[in-house]
């Protein structure tokens, strides 16, 4: 029998700093809920909107795998290992903080919001050499299918991280169904609804809802609205 945890969109932490509006699925910064510290090794799922021309000043991370998925607008990244890049919808960025990396993130545009997901996953090894990776994907390749965007393998589709984790994005027509099979025994999957409505293993979910499922080998998805979008994050549970 599978285990399920359901997080409705409106129950997330809500931090409005003026220049930044962030919704936290799991405890982060001033939002603390002991029952919502993580899902397995998925530690942070932040749904961020950054005002025009604003951003996060230089700050440090270590021993965390950090994945950024832009949803709208252009996000400029600079880091202490020499990267200056812009990521936009269709791109995926991975940063292994390892022994320590400093970076900044700014909305490159002076006239519109940037919206992105910031996701943290605990690594499977500590103090690795910091690294940065960024790819541009063909978003048509996720129409009515699940497009892999993160894996543990440098020679596999998507960016790679130091963890037995696989992420997929999908965009589905109404009434389209698909199954997702776990890549590794013992892993769980956390599904986050980016747009529209889905049924996942019999549970009705709406935009920005999240559901974590473990002790199962596969889950079943069905889109209940046109152009419905979903992010799946398969992670070890311990």
TrEMBL record:
Binding positions for Fe cation per the UniProt entry: 59, 61, 103, 105
Cross-referenced Pfam families: Pirin, Pirin_C_2
Superkingdom, taxonomy of origin: Bacteria
Domain Pirin N-terminal: 12-121
Co-factor remark: Binds 1 Fe cation per subunit.
This protein's UniProt keywords: Iron, Metal-binding
Cofactor: Fe cation
GO molecular function, one term: metal ion binding
Residue ranges occupied by any Quercetin 2,3-dioxygenase C-terminal cupin domain in the UniProt entry: 148-235
Family: Belongs to the pirin family.
PANTHER family named among the record's database cross-references: QUERCETIN 2,3-DIOXYGENASE
Name of the protein in question: Pirin family protein
Organism annotation: Candidatus Opimibacter skivensis
């Amino acid at each position: 029998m599978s285990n399920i945890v359901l997080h409705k969109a409106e129950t997330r932490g809500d931090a409005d700093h003026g220049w930044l509006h962030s919704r936290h699925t799991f405890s982060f910064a001033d939002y603390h809920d002991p029952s919502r510290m993580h899902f397995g090794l998925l530690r942070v799922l932040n749904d961020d909107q950054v005002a025009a021309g604003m951003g996060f000043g230089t700050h440090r991370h270590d021993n965390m795998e950090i994945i950024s998925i832009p949803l709208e607008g252009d996000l400029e990244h600079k880091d202490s290992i020499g990267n200056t890049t812009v990521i936009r919808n269709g791109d995926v960025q991975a940063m292994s903080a390892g022994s320590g990396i400093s970076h900044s993130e700014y909305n490159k545009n002076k006239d519109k919001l940037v919206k992105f997901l910031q996701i943290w996953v605990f690594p499977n090894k500590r103090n690795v050499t910091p690294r940065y990776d960024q790819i541009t994907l063909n978003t048509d390749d996720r129409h009515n299918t699940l497009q892999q965007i993160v894996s543990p393998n440098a020679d596999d589709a998507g960016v790679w991280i130091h963890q037995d984790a696989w992420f997929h994005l999908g965009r589905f027509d109404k009434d389209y169904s698909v199954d997702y099979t776990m890549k590794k025994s013992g892993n769980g999957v956390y599904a986050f609804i980016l747009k529209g409505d889905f049924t996942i293993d019999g549970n009705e979910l709406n935009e920005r809802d999240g559901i974590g499922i473990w002790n199962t080998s596969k889950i079943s998805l069905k889109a209940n609205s046109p152009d419905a979008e979903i992010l799946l994050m398969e992670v070890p549970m311990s």
